[in-house]
């Protein structure tokens, strides 16, 4: 892109999983990317540190602004300053289980936050210039009405998170219809990556599998093992976000792989990636996963001591404190509209996703093991 035709994008939630992949994607496309980040008592920019540019340099194409979706005046100021061609509203309290503990905050950030962005664009007279992407979610489908879920499937949200996102979905549709704004929902099904937050189930599993293999952890405690999710890779999904805003007409799209898997099978696949076979037995809270076989050649290839992998060892147990007051049992998306209209197709399969996540966590845990064995694992400032 020539510098005078370069587009400008503003990403809220730039420090999150999707924000980081999207920033990288847009920078490669030649955009000037602005990101909204929250003030935190610790550095929270790990995922975008590789994109960081010294603020003292001229001609930066990646610029961060402090801000929060609960602060309208701040959003208005940043949007006025940036004058974006595209806004990707990815910021959210995105953890479904946590939303039961912080329902009001979740409604404020995830629901009213979307309104604040749209209203800022309107108040600043940018409705013709600025296109808005709203991060909607398969959690909107909630209690199963029909499968696979498509753009026409009715919503039945099952958590404060999903209810807040339902407001975000409809206010986006409403601003599109009322003010002729180019505002779109991407209804994205679960998508993961090596930089997925550590408390979402996939990353919790892949981290634990790597730790167990290296003797840094003994057991993995999980909640509902029978939940089924349509898991894709975040890298594929941020491309879909961009495609949605490049269309001639603003519309909403389901983005999914069309394949669903249980949490239990995700665990099996993850251990399998390292050459460890786990079998499940028992039911409900008594279900457990036990090591029944090991592939010594694979383990050695990955620098894992096969002697650490004990046949008969229980490595997965159920902890009911991870159950949700209301659960979403089955998600499987129908991405045919996106395939047809956007030409979008995921490049990753579940197997390549799991492999990338497990090997990345194994790499991290090898470093942790090295530090621990060298006596550098705990720096206690408060002794
Ligand atoms: P993450 O939880 O990884 O990232 C969320 C981002 O939002 C972080 O940058 C976080 O900042 C920021 N944030 C949270 N609250 C606020 C706030 N009040 N003001 C400003 N920023 C805030 O989520 P993902 O990247 O996985 O998801 C991106 C979006 O897509 C979210 O809206 C999520 O709900 C939605 N979504 C995600 C799906 C998925 O499977 N990943 C599927 C469908 C929708 P900090 O880093 O400081 O915490
Ligand atoms: P989800 O993702 O709720 O689908 O929301 P999460 O990975 O948290 O849960 C998926 C399923 O796994 C079950 N589960 C567990 N979940 C967690 N977190 N921890 C556990 O120990 C555990 N054990 C079983 C859950 O009950 C659930 O059924 C994600 C988020 O990214 C949302 O922001 C996004 O909108 C949706 O995906 C699509």
Automatic annotation (TrEMBL):
<feature type="domain" description="NAD(P)-binding">
    <location>
        <begin position="10"/>
        <end position="357"/>
    </location>
</feature>
<dbReference type="InterPro" id="IPR006368">
    <property type="entry name" value="GDP_Man_deHydtase"/>
</dbReference>
<keyword id="KW-0521">NADP</keyword>
<dbReference type="InterPro" id="IPR036291">
    <property type="entry name" value="NAD(P)-bd_dom_sf"/>
</dbReference>
<comment type="function">
    <text>Catalyzes the conversion of GDP-D-mannose to GDP-4-dehydro-6-deoxy-D-mannose.</text>
</comment>
<keyword id="KW-0456">Lyase</keyword>
<dbReference type="InterPro" id="IPR016040">
    <property type="entry name" value="NAD(P)-bd_dom"/>
</dbReference>
<comment type="similarity">
    <text>Belongs to the NAD(P)-dependent epimerase/dehydratase family. GDP-mannose 4,6-dehydratase subfamily.</text>
</comment>
<dbReference type="Pfam" id="PF16363">
    <property type="entry name" value="GDP_Man_Dehyd"/>
</dbReference>
<protein>
    <recommendedName>
        <fullName>GDP-mannose 4,6-dehydratase</fullName>
        <ecNumber>4.2.1.47</ecNumber>
    </recommendedName>
</protein>
């Amino acid at each position: 892109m020539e510098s005078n035709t370069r587009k400008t994008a503003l990403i809220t939630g730039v420090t999150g999983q999707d924000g980081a992949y999207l920033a990288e994607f847009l920078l490669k496309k030649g955009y000037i990317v602005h990101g909204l980040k929250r003030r935190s008592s610790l550095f929270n920019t790990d995922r975008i540190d590789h994109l960081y540019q010294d603020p003292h340099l001229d001609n930066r194409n990646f610029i961060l602004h402090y801000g929060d979706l609960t602060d309208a005046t701040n959003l208005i100021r940043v949007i006025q300053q940036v004058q974006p061609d595209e806004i990707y509203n990815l910021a959210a309290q995105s953890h479904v289980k946590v939303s039961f503990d912080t329902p009001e905050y979740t409604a404020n950030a995830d629901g009213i936050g979307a309104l604040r962005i749209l209203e800022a664009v309107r108040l600043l007279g940018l409705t013709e210039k600025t296109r808005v992407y709203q991060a909607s979610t398969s959690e909107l489908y909630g209690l199963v009405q029909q499968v696979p879920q498509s753009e026409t499937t009715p919503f039945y949200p099952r958590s404060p998170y999903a209810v807040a996102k339902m407001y975000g979905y409809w206010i986006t549709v409403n601003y599109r219809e009322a003010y002729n704004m180019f505002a779109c929902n991407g209804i994205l099904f679960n998508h993961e990556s090596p930089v997925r937050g550590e408390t979402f189930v996939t990353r919790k599993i892949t981290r634990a599998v790597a730790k167990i293999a290296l003797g840094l952890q003994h057991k993995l405690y999980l909640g509902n093992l029978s939940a089924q999710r349509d898991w894709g890779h975040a890298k594929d999904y941020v491309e879909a976000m961009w495609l949605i805003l490049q269309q001639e007409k603003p519309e909403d799209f389901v983005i999914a792989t069309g394949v669903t898997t249980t949490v239990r099978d995700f665990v099996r696949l993850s251990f399998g990636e390292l050459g460890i076979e786990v079998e499940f037995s028992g039911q409900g809270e008594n279900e457990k996963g036990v090591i029944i076989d090991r592939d010594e050649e694979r383990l050695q290839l990955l620098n894992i001591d096969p002697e650490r992998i004990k046949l008969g060892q229980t490595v997965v147990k159920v902890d009911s404190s991870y159950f949700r007051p209301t659960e979403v049992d089955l998600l499987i998306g129908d991405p045919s509209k996106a395939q047809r209209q956007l030409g979008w197709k995921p490049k990753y399969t579940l197997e390549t996703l799991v492999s990338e996540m497990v090997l990345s966590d194994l790499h991290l845990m090898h470093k942790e093991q090295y530090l621990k064995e060298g006596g550098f694992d705990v720096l206690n400032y408060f002794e």
